[in-house]
Amino acid sequence: MYGAELSGTIKIQGGDITMLDSRYVPLFIGGFLAYICIMILIGVISTRGKSSGSNFLTGGANLGFFLIFCTVGATMIGTGSSMGAIANGYNSGWAGAIYGLGASTGILSMLLFVKIRDKKFLTMSEEAQYYYGGKKIVRQTMGFMMFVVEIIWLGNHMNGGSKYLAYITGMSDVLCKVITVLAFAVYVFIGGYLAVVVTDAVQFCVIVAGFALIAIKAIPAAGGYANIAATFESVGKPGAMGFYGLAQYGLMPAIALVLSTYMGVIGTPTHRTRIYTSANEGTARKAFLSSGIMLFFWSFVTAIIGMSAFTIANGQGVTLESADYAFSFMATHVLGPVFGLVLMIAGLSATMSSGDSDAISGITILLTDVYPSVTGKTIKEEDYPKYSRIALVVTLGVAFLITLFVNDVITYIQKVVGSLLPGLAICMFMGRFWKRATWQGGMACIISGTGFGLLYLLVPSLSGWVDSALGGAAVPATVISLICGVVVSLVTPWILGVNMTRLVPSLREPHIFLPAY
After folding, report:
1. Residue 374, Cβ neighbours under 10 Å: how many?
2. Is 440 within 8 Å of 499 (Cβ atoms)?
3. Using CB atoms within 10 A of its CB, is residue 82 exposed (0-12), middle (13-18) or buried (19+)?
4. Could you report the per-residue pLDDT of 164-216, keeping only the tens digit for each?
């Protein structure tokens, strides 16, 4: 009833059990290396002659619906969905769909910002500067914060990819993280942003096909939905089968996760890059609308896979060391060793498609926002590819160091993302929709939100209380940022000539000013 019985080892609490025959490990490694080579080849062919100058960072800023839709979808079905959401389904039933609810809502909310496409920005920091009267300090602060945000997300994707590799190969976490970084870094290094979106399109197709196949076979392999419900009830988790599993997961933790994910989308530069590089506003609008709808329905797929994995594991007497291994367990147990290992590559595709997008966004911010702010100089057009490759190495190196301290995917999203991104997201919302917002108010959002987030992460007694009472940092961080931003805006001068015209000098072309819309 529970699919293929395999032999080898799988980590569980308290020891190892038979899982994967060691003869299949070379098959997986060989297939993974072949897959990476194919991605590199696709990246090289698709970007030949199209990655000179700043095009290395923008892909020509003329991407069509299909590429934008695929790169958004591939990123959002990435580490958080393929690993974290399935892990939630494993632990708490339909709560596995909560992450997808936040993700789809966030992507749909990006429709509120697509009008900015006509301004031809490169980074989210430029957009923030535009909203707040052209203040240089806003762009500089946002630039540094945005770079930190991309480092945070990159660390999350490295954690996710390493989980897949560790599950199959038994290698150490550190070595698996190194391999994951090199896997997606190489084609970014070669072809830049266009290589990222083209390979994302390929990986999106692989992800959807692989996950859909597992989802279709999951419930029958678990003995039917009635058996899944009975299994959760037998272990004392009947609430997991209710509406979004709230009776098991908890209302406040669910709100915190939705808000963490939502603010993560709004406050992350990667999704703005999709707007800036779309062919036009209409293309961006259609792509985000389609992606948001798709993600909503996809969220239930991850929950189904997680619930089925728990039922199958429980029936076999298996307790996974980490719920993050749930997808890997399903791929190898439900589909058998050979086909299951091929589907594991789909899981790795999910993490790589997320990682490469955040890597290129981080590079863009470092070169167009952080570097000019620190040095007072801008990079020559013809030097962008060279400096971008140097920046890639630096960015991935810093992200790798962060991953040495946090391993759990959903915890990473709830704690780190949920504590540090709400201030940035509120700053963007205020600047976009509230004409009375001042640059001081925008800075207050960033400083208060980030300050609270750092206290939450660094003071165990505070984080313990926040987690138990509010389910995580996202709710208080959002409220604090909003209150501080509104209050400071109301008590600081609103200069008509600045806040209404919002002239923004471009750091790349200082003589150009961008009019308000």
Report:
1. 12
2. no
3. buried
4. 777 777 778 788 888 877 876 776 777 677 877 888 888 888 888 878 888 88
For 229, other C-beta atoms within 10 Å of its C-beta total: 16
360 occurs within a structural domain = yes
Measured distance between the N- and C-terminal CA atoms of the chain, rounded to whole angstroms: 61
Average pLDDT over every residue of 46-65: 72
pTM over 0.70: yes
Question: What's the domain range around 149?
Answer: 10-42+56-514
The whole-angstrom separation of Cα 244 and Cα 196 is 34
Does the structure show a pLDDT above 60 at 271? yes
CATH number for 482: 1.20.1730.10
Asked whether residue 4 is domain-assigned, the answer is no
Q: Cα-flanking dihedrals φ and ψ of residue 115, to 5°?
A: -60, -20
pLDDT of residue 413: 65
Task: Return the half-sphere exposure (C-beta side, CA atoms, 13 A cut-off) of residue 140.
Answer: 9
Which residues does residue 87 pair with via DSSP β-bridges, in sequence order?
none
Residue 397 lies in a domain: yes
Spatial distance between the Cα atoms of 181 and 188, rounded to a whole number of angstroms:
11
Structural domain count of the chain: 1
How many CA atoms, within 13 angstroms, populate the side-chain half-sphere of residue 87? 20
According to the model, what pLDDT value does residue 391 have? 86
- pLDDT at residue 49 greater than cutoff 70: no
Report if residue 410 sits inside a domain: yes
| Paired tokens of 510 | 């200082």
268 φ/ψ angles, rounded to the nearest 5 degrees:
-105, 130
- Distance from C-alpha of 158 to C-alpha of 488, rounded to nearest angstrom: 38
Residue 59: pLDDT over 80: no
Amino acid at position 243, single letter = F
